[in-house]
Specification:
heterodimer; A: about 600 residues; alpha/beta; FAD/NAD(P)-binding domain; eight-stranded mixed sheet; B: about 450 residues; 3 domains; 7 strands
């Protein structure tokens, strides 16, 4: 018999970026809110204290801030012909755990999508015709446009505290910024971060080839900063411990620095940690949710939390899992294309070139997660898909982001991986390498999807979620195109040695090495209930009082890091709840 | 001889009678400064506002206790004084007090039975409050505060301080002013600030020096020693006037921001001042914090520039570079010379990330160490304590982030902390006495948790 808690106006599932945004914006409406967080509470002091926090073995290698597979994991296979096996050791992607979620341990790269990325199907059809869309690709338009989201991108950037330089201010192209970015109504809240030596070298080489270098947009403070909630950041010291770590310096944009302190002051808001939501409960008619059932890890019992509104704001994989378990839509069937839950799971297609310069010192320990100079000359808006034979694009970036000794020792290929030869190579090469990364789009495909595993269950007895995912030719072609463009640029810098790492034709997904924690789709937005699990306001088509936030909304992944779009969509959703839903709860579309 | 003995006996008798009279003749309560109309009623919210401005909660609430129910230990040079329950509970609080009795406690330091309050209760300052504010406060406590039954420990000071009648003599020396408020010849806004600073805010209780009798030396603005700096529980309450003080470098807006949010472009409020910000100042109107700032900045007759607003705008705040006084230290640190002194090396290893080579920190978040009154104060315990145990600026309405500096007690030995503290007290043009390892050991031992 589950314990039952007092009814709330709103229950929030997961207290990361989007849960915090929903919390504070709805708390301003005076609603009675509880946020349920699976993990522990954490704050800058004491949890991220120096020097304990910058322990690479504990956090970088042993992944202390991440979800433990024994807590929650999923099974993985590459296509319907394989048997999915549990992801027992974190590798390819790293879901976070605890208050702040992935927002505490990210690198801080905060991008907006390009305008056409949100209307990509229309862009392709209008310019090259439907026939260039490969078979099996679920290319779609988002049911919301860049222009509609622009005020919310701006709002999120002000809250999060982003450093950068506008390239397109209300349509006016500005020197030094990204000329290919979507228009912005205001400049970045903070000036760009200073430039490290490798970034400057890349900038000069890119400019010499006629490209358009600009500062990476960084959720890292370049100055002191006060956001619209009065929350604060202090200037970064370039210690190089961002991704996989909490920031000890109040310099990285996170729910802790941007929202939580302000949110906790609202007497109508409370949060409970170690409270893992097991399912959303639906009313008998299935048209609305009545609340959620969660596992109280301290009391070791199930608890029913009734609420009028349910906000699903846990990590993308977990959101999709909860929706599948709760019947918040039909599971996607890749053979028929019917159903929406689990549809259009997508990822990121990345590659890069590393260059060794015997006589140059790059001081790789000086850096931050969003350090660097970028170019967008091969981004989605710049590529001729018809001529090149792929749909997609990438941004390139060069900048030291950490010099952590265990995991960041680039060595020439063929170097022994241990022993005297390895030691000698480390001595010769440490600090003498720089790299350029290509961070590319990933389309959605019928094959790549999420559903419930028929075999494996979790510690609560629930079926694990199953990921079916493999690389597809379109994105691999895009990646090879980037290689063909990047190698000449790298060569123009005259390194003593350079080596490329780009997946090519025939590459198969390998879940073991870390790639990126940009898992997207699965509860995508759709113009209709047939196309997506949620509508343009991230509102469930199935139960109108359930809103699902996060990258699960992405129709296909963009070429950028997802946080900027996640934040913009969250503010767009919460604005709709505030201005349209509360006065008259109903399906908003 | 007989005559002589008679005279002696007579004198003794007179002395005993005088002493008995001193002890037993009922004390007089000061008359009100103003007679309020029979139908006078406080404005909506006035009483709660006076309560906040008077910072009653900070002393009359224990760490885990109900608001205003007392039981907080207040350290004094004479021993521990326990704050009383001032909720309207009849048994353990002040529920049976009349307004006249309440007023007497506020302005004369007298309980209803004539017992003298210890002057940890700042009736020296509350004595300047208006009759209206006293009435509003009384009405609020009696009608809107929930009664809480909470018996607090008796204050038991050692001899002779346990003889409360002695306070009667002390009061003759200390209560030479008032009752009531006398505005200075300044603007109306500054007069409002003066009232809050002198009266309910009782700033002089910490920021004025104490005289030989431990009374406040400087209670009102017309005295030169008013707010000239004091020491409270081992912390410097810095001078709020004169040359070379922190405040002389701050604008009116920066000072108002410090009061309202516990932080500004230069510094942060720690220790006792952090409590004042948390419980009192952040709850006052912008206009009142501005009024206090304007009064303090103009206290020595200087012209005052009023800002339009303070601590309101969000956005980027530029980080200052080194100034001429700090240039040599900044250059030395930036040289990264391995031969630099140990204190400087410890600074590079532990502090420079936030406070920077310039010692200027960053506006509103990392306090500047150059010229910081806590760094260069006559009392070294606070600096040592902050290095060992860290510090916390409370969450406030306008700046909701609780800024916590971590402690370094586990990372540095007594010798190292002494080296670091000594170096800080001489860096960037700072000129203050050195700190010894024994000083650090004493603080570590006492485990000051501020």
């Amino acid at each position: 018999m589950a314990r039952q808690e007092k009814k709330k106006d709103v229950v929030i599932v997961g207290l990361g970026w989007t849960g915090s945004i929903a919390g504070i914006e709805l708390a301003q409406e005076g609603l009675d809110i509880v946020a349920l967080e699976r993990g522990h509470d954490q704050n800058t002091v004491p949890n991220f204290e120096y020097p304990q926090q910058i322990d690479e073995l504990k956090y970088g290698v042993r992944l202390k801030m991440m979800q433990k597979p024994s807590q929650q994991t999923l099974t993985v296979r590459r296509d319907g012909g394989e048997t999915a096996l549990p992801y027992r050791s974190l590798g390819s992607f790293l879901p976070g755990n605890g208050v702040g979620g992935a927002g505490t341990h990210w690198n801080g790269l905060n991008w907006r999508p390009q305008e056409i990325e949100l209307k990509l199907r229309s862009h392709v059809v209008e310019n090259w015709g439907e026939e260039i869309i490969p078979e099996g690709m679920n290319l779609g338009d988002y049911p919301v446009s860049y222009d509609e989201l622009e005020p919310f991108f701006t709002q999120f950037e002000k809250v999060a505290g982003i450093s950068g330089q506008a390239g397109n201010l209300n349509g006016e192209i500005r020197e030094g910024g990204n000329p290919f970015e979507g228009w912005r109504s205001e400049d970045y809240p903070m000036p760009p971060m200073p430039t490290t030596y490798d970034s400057a070298k890349f900038r000069d080489a890119a400019a010499a080839m006629g490209y358009h270098p600009f500062h990476a947009p960084a959720g890292i403070a370049s100055t002191s900063y006060v956001n619209p909630y009065g929350m604060q950041m202090g200037p970064c010291n370039f210690c190089g411990f961002c991704e996989r770590y909490g920031c000890y310096q109040y310099s990285k944009s996170s729910p802790q620095t941007a929202i939580l302190g302000a949110l906790k002051r609202y007497p109508n808001f409370e949060y409970r940690t170690q409270s893992e939501v097991l399912r959303v409960e639906l009313a008998a008619d299935g048209q609305t949710a009545t609340g959620v059932t969660y596992w109280d890890d301290v009391a070791q019992e199930e608890v029913f939390q009734p609420a009028d509104i349910v906000i699903l704001s846990s990590y993308q994989l977990n959101n999709v899992h909860l929706m599948l378990l709760s019947g918040l839509g039909e599971a996607y069937n890749p053979l028929t294309g019917e159903g929406t839950l689990g549809k259009n799971y997508a990822y990121q297609m990345n590659g890069g070139v590393t260059m060794f310069f015997r006589d140059e010192e790059f001081n790789p320990f000086v850096g931050h997660g969003a350090n660097g100079v970028c170019i967008d000359d091969f981004s989605i808006s710049q590529n001729d898909f018809g001529a090149e034979g792929f749909i997609g694009g990438s941004y390139w970036r060069s900048g030291t982001f950490n010099g952590q000794p265990i995991r960041n020792m680039p060595l020439p290929k063929g170097t022994p991986s241990w022993g005297a030869g390895w030691k000698q190579a480390i001595g010769e090469n440490y600090g003498h390498a720089m790299s350029i990364g290509s961070h590319g789009s990933h389309m959605s495909y019928a094959n790549n999807h999420l559903d419930l595993d028929p075999t494996y269950t979790d510690r609560h007895g629930r079926p694990l979620m199953r990921m079916t995912f493999n690389w597809q030719d379109n994105d691999l072609k895009m990646n090879q195109f980037m290689k063909s463009k990047m190698e000449p640029l790298a060569a123009s810098m005259n390194p003593d040695l350079m080596q490329s790492g780009f997946k090519g034709e025939g590459a198969m997904y390998d879940v073991r090495p870390y790639q990126t924690t940009h898992n997207t789709g699965g509860h995508i937005m759709g113009e209709t209930a047939r196309e997506g699990a949620v509508n343009r306001y991230s509102q469930s088509w199935k139960a109108h009082n359930v809103f699902a936030m996060g990258a699960g909304n992405f129709v296909q992944n963009t070429q950028y890091n997802p946080t900027g779009l996640v934040g913009g969509l969250a503010y767009h959703t919460v604005n709709a709840i505030r201005t349209q839903y509360l006065s008259n709860p109903r399906p908003l579309v | 001889m007989k005559t002589f003995l008679r005279i002696v006996a007579g004198l003794v008798a007179v002395g005993v009678i005088a002493l008995l009279a001193f002890i037993f003749v009922p004390v007089q309560r000061t008359e009100p400064t103003e007679a309020l109309a029979a139908d006078w009623e406080p404005a909506e919210g006035q009483g709660e506002y006076v309560l906040n401005a008077s910072d009653c909660v900070a002393c009359h609430t224990s760490d885990d206790g109900e608001s205003l129910a007392g039981g907080r230990a207040i350290a004094s040079p004479m021993g521990t004084i326990w704050s009383t329950n001032i909720t309207p509970d009849s048994e353990t609080g002040i529920g049976d007090w009349t307004f006249a009795e309440f007023r007497a406690a506020m302005i004369d330091g007298l309980e209803p039975d004539g017992t003298h309050l210890y002057p940890a209760m700042p009736y020296e300052n509350y004595r300047l409050m208006t009759e209206e504010d006293l009435r509003a406060l009384y009405e609020y406590i009696m009608t809107e505060v929930e009664p809480v039954s909470n018996e607090v420990p008796e204050t038991e000071l050692s001899f002779p301080f346990n003889l409360r009648f002695g306070i009667r003599a002390w009061n003759w020396l200390a209560l030479t002013h008032g009752p009531g408020f006398t505005p200075a010849d300044v603007s109306e806004l500054q007069q409002r600030g003066q009232y809050l600073v002198e009266g309910p805010g009782h700033c002089a209780a910490c920021h004025s020096p104490r005289n030989t009798f431990m009374a406040q030396d400087g209670v009102t603005a017309d005295e030169d020693s008013f707010l000239a700096g004091g020491v409270i529980d081992g912390w410097n309450a810095p001078a709020l006037r004169g040359e070379g003080t922190d405040l002389s470098q701050w604008s009116v807006g920066e000072l108002a921001a410090y009061l309202a949010t516990g932080r500004n472009a230069h510094s942060t409020a720690n220790g006792e001042m952090g409590l004042v910000v948390e419980h009192s100042l952040q709850k006052l109107t912008d206009e009142d914090n501005l009024a206090m700032a304007a009064f303090l900045k103009g206290i020595d007759g200087d012209a005052v520039d009023l800002p339009e607003s303070f601590a309101a705008a969000s956005g980027a705040l530029e980080v200052p570079g080194a100034d001429s006084a700090g240039e040599a230290t900044t250059t030395m640190l930036a040289s990264a010379d391995p031969d630099m002194p140990l204190g400087a090396r410890l600074y590079m290893d532990n502090c420079v990330g936030c406070h920077f080579a310039t010692g200027k920190g960053a506006p509103e978040i990392f306090p500047e160490l150059q010229g910081n009154s806590l760094v260069v104060g006559s009392e070294t315990m606070p600096l040592i304590s902050v290095i060992l145990n860290g510090a916390e600026v409370p969450s406030t309405a306008k700046r909701p982030m609780a800024l916590r500096m971590q402690g370094y007690a586990d990372r540095m030995s007594d010798d190292e902390v002494a080296e670091l503290a000594t170096w800080l007290r001489g860096a960037w043009g700072n000129e203050a006495s050195p700190v010894s390892a024994a000083d650090v050991a004493a603080v570590r031992e006492a485990d000051h948790g501020h």
